[in-house]
Amino acid sequence: MVFPGLLPLAGAALGAAAMYLFDPDRGRRRRALMRDQLLSAASHLDDAIEATARDLIHRAQGLMAEARSTVSDEEVSDEVLVNRVRAKMGRVVSHPGAMKVTAEQGRVTLSGDVLEHEHEDLLQAVRSVQGVVEVEDRLEPHKTAEGISALQGGSARPGDRFELMQENWSPAARVLVGTAGSALALYALKSRNVSGLVAGVAGATMLLRSATNLPLARLAGMAGRRTIDIQKTINVNAPLEQVFDTLTHYENFPQFMSNVREVKVREDGGSHWTVTGPGGMSVEWDAVTTKLEQNRVLAWRTVPGATVEHAGMIQFERVNGGTRLDVEMSYSPPAGVLGHVVAKLFGADPKTELDEDLLRMKTFLETGKAPRDAAAKV
User: Fold this and answer.
1) Burial grade of 23 (CB within 10 A; 0-12, 13-18, 19 or more)
2) 233 with 362, same domain?
3) What are the tens digits of pLDDT across the range 88-105?
4) What angle do CA 120, 122, 123 make, to 5 degrees?
5) What's the CA gap between 32 and 352, in Å, rounded?
6) Which of the four pLDDT bands, split at 50, 70 and 90, describes residue 1?
7) 41, part of any domain
C-alpha cells in the first residue's frame, strides 16, 4: 500500500516536469541540455563502476589480511611495521613527513617535530597499530608551526573516525548507503503507517547523501559555506567597453534573464532584486557591489540575512575585438541542496538557468535586442 498523498504529489511532480521540458519558449533548449547531461553522466558511469569495484576489492583484501594477522602468531617484519605506522600517522597528524619512524622487533621509535595538540593522539594511534609492542617517544612538540620549516603548510587530518562520520565517503560506502536507502524507500512505498513514513524520509536522506557525497549539514543548508558553486566562460562579439557598461547597470538584467523581473538601483549603490522563484513565487533580496574595476572586474553579494544568499564576480577581457567573460557565482537556496533539488523540479535550477541566461546575454549584447523568452522586452 502507498501513502494516499503520494499519488497526487507524484502527479504534480510529473506535471511540473512536463511543463518544464515542453515549454513553448525554452523547452527545446532544456531538452537539449538534459540530453547532453545524460550523455555526460553515461560517459562517466564506467569509471564510477570501476572505481567502486576496485574500492570494494581492496577493502575485502584488507579485511582478510587483518583477519589472518589476528589469528596468526607470525612475527611482523620491521619494514611492514614501519609502513603500518606511517599509514596510521597519515590519518592523525598534519605533517607526517616531519617525523622519522624506525622499528625493531615490535619496538617503534618516533622522532622529529610534531604540533603539540597532535602529540597525544599520535602516540595513541601508533600504540593501536597491530604488531606494535612498545612506543619510544623522541618527538619534539611545538605549540605552533612558527619558525619550524618541517611544520609549514599541511592540513588537518580526519583521524580514526568511522567512515560514515567523515565528510567524504569512499565509493564503497556510497554504494552501501545508497543500497540501504533504496531498500528503505521501497519499504515506505509499500507501507502506510508511521514507520513507513520515517523509513521513507531516512531512505531519501541516505540516497541524497550517497549520491551527492556532501555532508548532511551542507545538504540542509546549515553549513557555513554556500551550497552551489558555478563557473562559466563565454565569448561575446561586442566591444569590451559596451559589455562592461551594460552589465554594470543591473537594471538591464531583466532584458536577458528569464526570471529577473525587476532590479532597482538605489542612490547608495545598492540594488533591490525581484525574481521568479520555484513554482512562480516572487523572491526579493538586496545586494551590494563589492568590487568594481573599470572594464576589468565586477563583483557583488547579497546583504546579510537575504532570503537567497549568493555572491558573484565577472572578469572582463578583450579578445580578438570581442570580450571574454569569466563568470563565478555561489548560491545557497533557503533549504541548502535539498531546496536546490526541489527548485530544480520546478524549473529553477541555477546551473541550467545560468547556461540559458548566458546565451540570452550574449544575444542581447551582440544585437541590442532582448530575447523573446527574457523577463522584459526592449
Assistant:
1) middle
2) yes
3) 887 788 888 888 999 998
4) 65
5) 11
6) very low
7) no
Q: Kind of pairing, strands 228-236 and 322-332?
A: antiparallel
C-alpha dist (Å) from residue 194 to 5, 156, 201, 208: 14, 42, 11, 21
Q: How many CB atoms lie within 10 A of CB 100?
A: 12
What is the three-class DSSP state of 290? strand
Cell of 104: 625493531
pLDDT digits (tens, 9 = 90+) for 312-327: 899 999 998 899 999 8
Whether residues 208 and 254 fall in one domain: no
Q: What is the residue range of 174's domain? A: 164-213
Residue 343 pLDDT > 60, yes or no?
A: no
pTM, whole model, 2 decimals?
A: 0.44
Is 151 a domain residue? yes
d(CA 78, CA 100): 14
238 in the same domain as 191 = no
CA–CA separation, 77 and 64 (whole Å): 19
Residues 153 and 169 in one domain: no
Within this chain, do residues 83 and 149 fall inside the same structural domain, yes or no? Answer: yes
Number of domains forming the structure of the chain: 4
Domain assignment of residue 172, yes or no: yes
